[in-house]
């Protein structure tokens, strides 16, 4: 597999939300590629198990792996993470802002859950970029920042509005970051938005059995690495039931709500159900 020029053996990757799911799969794959890996997540047995797992496949063994307890919602935690990585490993090739929680709420409810979700899913990304970004730019070496978004931040289905808001904001923030980086003279850092499809993770698992429609976290990470290698900004993942073509039609319909002045979220509006079904078949 071709790889992004930043992802070379001996350099360092930092992955948040690394105790499980896509974050753990990314940490494991990057360690297999010869990178030193720092796993950041909430303190606990899951983080320690993840670090042990990654150390088993790391080219440098346990010495090439760090597990650093981090609450990305807390700026001082992220700053401590950065200081620890620089002290132990120095050069940072990749920052993957992947930490997220899913228990939000609708527009009129659960303000406390809204606040916590936004602190983790949005502010965790901002904390990561603003803490690590300047030093990554200053290295004057190839580097990548990957922020994990969601299709829910693009088509915004009804239900967990808090999650949609956070992931929509991550999309917009990452677009702005990519524009900023490419306009900095001599900057060799690029930004990318990972948009997983239906993925079997701790957040989506129901009863511990992978649904046939879902991708594994490893499939998502392999897809991400493939598309980083060719420089894609939007890394829009399919899954076992949703193709790229289906995603494109859903995204187009969502954008057309504004252009055509349809009701908000018309895809789920009963008066537009027939028109949406016909659109998807066309």
Describe the model:
- The protein is of the alpha/beta class.
- Helix content is 46%, strand content 14%.
- Strands 3-2-1-4-5-6-9 form a seven-stranded parallel beta sheet, with helices on both faces. Strands 7-8 form a two-stranded parallel ribbon.
- Helix 2 links the parallel strand 2 (36-41) and strand 3.
- The mean pLDDT is 96.
Specify the helix fraction band.
40-55%
Overall radius of gyration: 19 Å
Beta-strand level of the residues, as a percent range? 5-15%
Through-space gap between termini: 36 Å
Overall pLDDT confidence: 96
| Total count of strands | 9
State the helix count. 10
Provide the low-confidence segments as ranges.
none
SSE map:
Elements: E1 12-16, H1 21-32, E2 36-41, H2 45-57, E3 65-69, H3 75-88, E4 94-97, H4 111-121, H5 123-138, E5 143-148, H6 152-155, H7 161-182, E6 189-195, E7 199-200, E8 215-216, H8 217-229, E9 234-236, H9 244-259, H10 273-281
Parallel strand pairs: 1-2, 1-4, 2-3, 4-5, 5-6, 6-9, 7-8
Short description:
With 282 residues, the chain is an alpha/beta fold. It has ten helices and nine strands.
Q: Which characteristics define this entry?
A:
single chain; alpha/beta; 10 helices; 14% strand
